Amino acid sequence: MGQIRVHEFISLDGGIDNPTWTMDFGFDPKMGEAIGGAMDGCSGILLGRNTYQMFAPAWSERTAEDDPGAPFMNDTTKYVVSSSLDEATWANSKIIGGYDPAVIQRIKDDQDGDLYVSGSGTLVRQLLDDGLVDRLHLFVYPCTRGPGPRLFAEQAKPTSYSLVTCKHYENGVLYLNYRS
């Protein structure tokens, strides 16, 4: 049985909208090492439709020379949660239909490794609500975003997490790795 590991770029006020705002802070190479660690041991990627549609054209053309994460993103089986997509356009992708926690649990149970989730805010909120997230890998940026999508829904039930790792980077970003 695998675990679900969620990776998010998040603002101080919990914002997880399209992370183009992170560009203002640069990308510390040590952050890439932490992201690689979040991917390590994962044998599947779980994505919502919006993130899948953003990632597919961006990652499908990248090679290991372009980005060390490209082989993982391109070669790993991707499970896409969507009730509106009919066809997978990115190699090794499977559309699994609309969100169904029983289907996600079955995929999780059948994995030899873990499932990696990046972005996919709507999906992640549903996974959190259903207690399916085992690890949160949060990169907290020193800014606020104001109104917009949040990691935790306003009506989310109270939950406690255990801190596994905490690191800070020269660009002001904090990496927090939590276990549920």
Give the overall silhouette: globular
Quantity of strands, as a count: 8
N-to-C CA distance: 16 Å
Helix and strand content put the structural class at alpha/beta
In N-to-C order, the SSE pattern is EHEHHEEHEHEEE
In helices, the fraction of residues equals 25-40%
Determine Rg (CA atoms, Å): 16 Å
Strand order of the largest sheet: 4-3-2-5-1-6-8-7
Low-confidence segments, given as residue ranges, are none
What does this structure look like?
This protein is α/β, with parallel strands linked by helices. The chain is built from five helices and eight strands; from the N terminus they run E-H-E-H-H-E-E-H-E-H-E-E-E. The protein has helices at 29-39, 49-60, 70-75, 101-110, 121-129; strands spanning 4-11, 42-48, 77-81, 93-97, 114-118, 135-141, 162-168, 174-179. It has an eight-stranded mixed beta sheet. The chain is globular.
Topology:
Blueprint: E1 4-11, H1 29-39, E2 42-48, H2 49-60, H3 70-75, E3 77-81, E4 93-97, H4 101-110, E5 114-118, H5 121-129, E6 135-141, E7 162-168, E8 174-179
Parallel strand pairs: 1-5, 1-6, 2-3, 2-5, 3-4
Antiparallel strand pairs: 6-8, 7-8
Which terms summarize this structure?
180 residues, alpha/beta, globular
